[in-house]
Write a structure and sequence with these properties.
The chain is α/β, with parallel strands linked by helices and 341 residues long. 35% of the residues lie in helices and 22% in strands.
């Protein structure tokens, strides 16, 4: 693929880790600097726990971000009568509906209470990354690509339904072309993506799922099988997303929660996806996000990536673009960058 012409920082924000690639076109890609760090939701979750454990009030301030350990910490410590407040934008991390957040016990306010520990939300930890780069004498790039899993703003409906309906609508409107999933700029309803653009105007922002699929396609074996038909599965810490692909055509897709699957159940869903019989209702009623089928496709290879790949698909081919499994999403961002920038 034709790569970026200038240094770009690519960040794939997951539930457990944020995987980072500093791409430098003057170096072989294998020599690019790489970092695998705790995800922002983990860092902030730890900060909430530390403050609440010490009996201090917590005030969340900053943009909306992804949930995980942060939202779990809020729920746990509210049940222990900790005092937690948040600005409206930060509170949307907990739930899109601020009335629901207030009913849970979070005080919505712009002004922090006395003696409160201020904790800054956001999927892009730009201040911390700039400090890291400074300590290693690395120039911070002028160009940025970020992947987050955005459920979209849906205060009055299931975010599972909203997220997958947005994905399916995009595919249908763009003739089921895989590269049609690169929105630049992103859909205004995708508030996590918009928050990153507000922090870093001009950033390329896309969803972690398609980023992982594009990244897996940079593995030479996966790329070769895509000419006749390949199934690619991203088994993340939180979600599992599978695509059946022939060349650039998406033949089918489904998304579920990794913790709700086991190897046999996942193989059953993949079999139905490939033969075109998997329905949206079947996946949603199984507490997943949904499924959409363009047409059946007989796969010649099942490739897997993601941190929980060995747990759910131990027998599948493990995609390793440029020899690095953990940076699959970043390589997908690089692929997307080469298409739209």
């Amino acid at each position: 693929m034709s790569l970026a012409e200038h240094p770009v920082l690519f960040i794939d924000v997951g539930r457990g880790t944020q995987d980072i690639l500093l791409y430098d076109p003057s170096q072989p890609i294998e020599n690019s600097y790489k970092f695998v760090l705790p995800s922002p939701n983990v860092v902030i979750g730890n900060q909430i726990e530390n403050a609440a454990r010490n009996g201090l009030p917590v005030h969340l301030t900053g943009p909306v971000m992804g949930g995980g350990k942060n939202t779990q910490a809020v729920k746990v410590w509210l049940s222990r009568e900790a005092k937690i407040s948040a600005t409206p934008s930060a509170a949307l991390t907990i739930k899109d509906n601020l009335e629901v957040v207030q009913n849970q016990g979070v005080v919505i306010t712009e002004e922090p209470p006395d003696n409160a520990v201020l904790i800054h939300t956001g999927d892009l930890m730009q201040t911390e990354l700039r400090e890291l780069f400074h300590r290693f004498a690395l120039p911070f790039p002028d160009h940025l690509g970020v992947a987050v899993q955005d459920h979209g703003y849906s205060p009055h409906m299931s975010n599972r339904l909203f997220r997958f309906a947005s994905l399916q609508r995009t595919l249908e409107e763009r003739d089921w072309n895989l590269f049609g999933l690169i929105d630049d700029p992103p859909n205004p309803a995708m508030t996590r993506m918009q928050a990153i653009r507000d922090q870093f105007p001009g950033a390329l922002v896309m969803d972690t799922g398609p980023a992982a699929i594009l990244g897996a396609l940079q593995d030479p074996l996966v790329k070769a099988h895509a000419k006749t038909g390949v199934t690619i599965v991203n088994v993340g810490n939180g979600h599992t997303l599978a695509f059946t692909i022939k060349e650039e055509e998406v033949c089918g897709v489904f998304e579920h929660h990794s913790g709700a699957l086991d190897p046999d159940r996942l193989r059953m869903f993949l079999h139905k996806l490939e033969n075109g019989t998997l329905t949206n209702e079947e996946v949603y009623n199984d507490h997943g996000h949904g499924a959409a089928v363009n047409r059946p496709m007989k796969s010649t290879l099942t490739a897997v990536t993601g941190p929980k790949r060995k747990m759910l698909l131990p027998e599948a081919y493990q995609a390793a673009p440029f020899g690095d499994m953990m940076l699959t999403g970043c390589f997908g961002l690089l692929c997307a960058w080469s298409k739209v920038r």
